[in-house]
Write a structure and sequence with these properties.
By secondary structure, this protein is α+β, with helices and mostly antiparallel strands. The protein has 2 domains: 54 residues, no CATH class; 65 residues, no CATH class. It is 57% helix and 18% strand. It contains 3 helices and 5 strands; from the N terminus they run ββαβββαα. The protein has a 3-stranded antiparallel beta sheet with strand order 2-1-5. A hairpin with a 6-residue loop joins strand 1 and strand 2. It is elongated. Bound molecules: zinc ion. Zinc ion binds next to loops.
């Protein structure tokens, strides 16, 4: 989850480099008023903590995608001897699990990210 505020002058996205679970935590960390300087127009202003918006983090997305690809590869490597030794129907189950487990982790990370963004954007202080 990435946090930002739109500059009141030029609408540029000012990023906030804080890692919090919700707005209440951000309030506890920074107080009601957050002093920020826009990199585009250099306007310095005190913003309200409710002006902060949350959006999907590219880093989380990248992490989830890496789990999907490398997870499948690693599990595949770990069970390769087993697959070749097992009967065909058994091997199919293992291969399905190999794809399914990282996929489930991927979906869970994506869902958790979406939930925390929604929670942040729907909760006001
Ligand atoms: Zn600006």
């Amino acid at each position: 989850m990435k946090l930002f505020i739109f500059c009141s002058n030029c609408r540029n996205k000012i990023k906030l480099k804080y890692y919090v679970n919700d707005r209440a935590e951000l309030l506890k960390k920074l107080g009601v008023r957050i002093s920020l300087v826009c990199k585009e127009c250099s306007l310095s202003k005190n913003y309200h903590v409710n002006d902060v918006k949350a959006t999907e983090s590219k880093l989380t997305l990248l992490f989830a995608t890496m789990i999907l690809f490398f997870g499948t590869g690693i599990v595949g490597y770990l069970v390769k001897d087993f697959i070749f030794g097992a009967s065909v129907s058994y091997a199919i189950y293992v291969i399905l699990g190999m794809i399914l487990v990282p996929s489930i982790i991927y979906i869970m990370i994506k869902k958790q990210e979406r939930d925390s963004i929604r929670r942040f954007n729907e909760y006001w202080v």
